[in-house]
Write a structure and sequence with these properties.
Length: 132
């Protein structure tokens, strides 16, 4: 009973914080101008852009699975994808915290030691740096 009350309080607190942040972000937006811009938008390019973005995120999740496999773990693709998306969301709140967040999230879901996952993130960033 007490645990469910604490969980409900957390949900309400995060919901209130989200509403407050949305209000802060959008309080100066001219919604009529926004509506006019959306009406005149080219949705074909928006759809193409979203598809390419999704393919990029799915590819990154697959790459992370490939980097984790030699450690003797076989994480599920969708758990990996979800963990990566959680990390990207965390980066919006506090930059560079997303890498740790995705490691902790996947570690809990797949029972993989977080230190090993952090090693794969370091390797991934090194590969990214070398490929530039």
């Amino acid at each position: 009973m007490r645990k469910s009350l604490i969980q409900a309080a957390k949900v309400i607190a995060f919901l209130a914080a989200g509403i407050l942040l949305l209000w802060i972000a959008f309080r100066t937006v001219d919604f009529e101008s926004l509506r006019e811009s959306l009406i005149g938008a080219s949705y074909e390019w928006l759809i193409v852009s979203v598809l390419f973005g999704l393919i990029a995120y799915l590819s990154r999740a697959r790459r992370w699975v490939i980097l984790i496999n030699p450690l003797g773990h076989n994480p599920g693709f969708w758990n990996t994808f979800h963990s990566m998306m959680t990390g990207y969301l965390a980066n919006l709140v506090l930059p560079r915290i997303g890498e740790i967040t995705r490691c902790v999230t996947l570690g809990k879901k797949e029972n993989i030691p977080v230190d090993q996952l952090i090693g794969t993130v370091v390797l991934e960033r090194t590969i990214d740096l070398l490929s530039i």
